[in-house]
Amino acid sequence: MRILACFAIALAVSAVGQLNAASPPNIVFVLCDDHRFDCLGAAGHPFIETPHIDSIARDGAMLTRAYVTTSLCSPSRASILTGQYAHNHRVVDNYHPVDPTLTFFPQHLQKAGFQTAFIGKWHMGGEIDDPQRGFDHWVAFKGQGTYWPDGHGTTREVPQTTYDGLNINGKRVPQNGYITDELTDYAIEWLQNRDTEKPFFLYVSHKAVHSDFVPADRHRGRYADQPLPIETPTVEQMDAGKLPMWVRNQRNSRHGAEFGYNLADFSPEVYYRRYCESILAVDDSVGRLMTFLQENELRDNTVFVFMGDNGFQFGDHGLIDKRTAYEASARVPLLIMAPGRIPAGQSFDALVGNIDVAPTLLEAASAPALPKQDGKSFWTALTQNDASGFDRKTLLYEYYWERNYPQTPTLHAIIGGRYKYIRCHGLWDRDELYDLQLDAAEMHNLIDSPEHADRIGQLNAQLWDLLHASGGDEMPLLEDRGAQFPWRNPRKSKQAPFPAEFFRTSEHGN
């Protein structure tokens, strides 16, 4: 009898496993704003405490080579939703909305029988927070919103900050508390009231950790005395590394370490501590969502994704903010857990981009693919724990110059491999080549090294192949919107000189 009972239990467990594998999984997608790839405990950070986010890596997969194809809030978010490069979806700044003819991948989840909800920062189209296609339930705020409804804790007014509360399914509702916690409350409330007969897709899009970084009161000062793993190179080091003029000039600008946000007393160290403290509430949010799934027996049939929309620089290359193709800006955390589907504890080192999120989640849900996409699904390779099954060698990066923030030029790059090639457009300046294996900090520009001449030619050809293949050989040009910030501090570093190799007395350099 005991043997028969054990056999019956085994059959039952097997049946449950087969059902779990066959039924569409629920999906929770958590997006963290401006989250650097290395600001996680699981990524080896020396002091930041992110146990709940780290648990996704422990019980699922940590994708160690995840990048965004444009390191800026709105373009990256549009690429996540559409699976397209910025040159195709054409959201190239934080002021213009997505074309209404484009398809968002949650629309295809709806067609596959999913109920869908968006909670948080939309931030496409400036002040737009109206309910968007693809979502049955909607909670959002205009622009950047605010960490606290009374604005306490902030030290500067961020463009597109708003204090007029939340749009909940078309109705204006006041914000009551700390935004990271409040968005989590709304997410859990929706989960509690959802239709339990349907699979669900929940998209939690945090304001955190966008500047001006304001930690929850419970976390304020947590890392005030911690030694920091960041360092701002000197002007001399940047010159010796043959960094472009625009990079050296950006050092003394709104997006530079010397004049960050045009504050006379800006300190990357102070801001970095506040940034790390602000991440703690995001980790709490992930923990609360995980607890709900566990307590309601949903965890084992849910794909849980955590991702950053772009990275952030804290003195790297003398810069702050994002937009550039450097690792601190373009590389992001991406962790995915799916019990019974994704083997636990894997370090997945295939090269993936934000354009791959939509195809991957649609495949996971057995939903139809998007009509047009530049990305591709890595779901099968991930579930088989076989990074070689996702064959991508390099990824295209693009950023289009903004009149609002003229410090950063139009950039195209080949990223994700050992060698990173960056091409600036419309400037009388150097391009860039870095050997990430020997120069992880990207501080020794090899663009004029004779031994790399052939490689540079090959990477340039590869860049244009990717642009031609994806229709990126025409740049989006949109009308000016928003404030402009071209300021420099007269007491900080002076304008960078032209590179020495640009000076010649004749055609042959004599």
UniProtKB/TrEMBL annotation:
Signal sequence coordinates: 1-21
Keyword field: Glycoprotein, Hydrolase, Signal
InterPro entries with a match to the protein in the record: Alkaline_phosphatase_core_sf, Sulfatase_CS, Sulfatase_N
Keyword Glycoprotein found: yes
Gene3D superfamilies the record matches: Alkaline Phosphatase, subunit A
Coiled-coil positions: none
Domain (Sulfatase N-terminal) ranges: 25-365
Pfam families given in the database record: Sulfatase
Residue ranges, annotated region (Disordered): 486-510
UniProt key word Signal: yes
Entry's family note: Belongs to the sulfatase family.
The protein's name: Sulfatase
Source organism (scientific name): Novipirellula rosea
